[in-house]
Design brief:
Elements: H1 4-13, H2 15-22, H3 32-40, H4 46-50, H5 56-69, H6 75-88
Helix pairs in contact: 1-2, 3-6, 5-6
The chain binds heme C (HEC).
The site of heme C (HEC) has 17 residues, from helix 3, helix 4, helix 5 and helix 6.
């Protein structure tokens, strides 16, 4: 059962949140997960990232810090990974989506 008051609260936040909240598994650019695994498990486990939950701005800050730590990504790769993390480990999925 959908809780209508929670749901309309999300819609007020804007179209993107509402769209994401309406989908069980947010649509991803094909290969996003593979790219994330390739770029983000060089220095630590996947779960270092996937055990966390952040807004897009927070993920962007963390990814910037990872670049400072030595992570290598071009702008397109950064955008793809940022969208992936925000969709699956962001505010639209308070319980996360344990996909692995
Ligand atoms: C070059 C090595 C390296 C790569 C590649 C790397 N990280 Fe990290 N990561 C670290 C180090 C070192 C830490 C611990 C220090 C820190 O938090 O900055 C860390 C910590 C983290 C944390 C925990 C931060 C916290 O405050 O709890 C997250 C989340 C994270 N990384 C996500 C990512 C993501 C997402 C990617 C891919 C875009 C990535 N990492 C790629 C080195 C790396």
């Amino acid at each position: 059962m959908l809780n209508i008051s929670t749901y309309s609260g999300l819609i007020v936040l804007g179209g993107l949140s509402a769209t994401l909240a309406a989908q069980e598994v947010p649509k991803q650019t094909p290969g996003s997960r593979e790219l994330f695994v390739a770029k983000c498990t060089i220095c630590h486990q996947e779960a270092t990232a996937t055990s966390q939950q952040h807004s897009e701005a927070e993920w962007a800050g963390i990814m910037q810090r990872m670049v400072e730590n030595g992570a290598k990504m071009n702008d397109a790769e950064k955008t793809t990974i940022l969208k992936y993390l925000t969709a699956l480990y962001g505010p639209a999925n308070p319980d996360g989506l344990a996909t692995s």
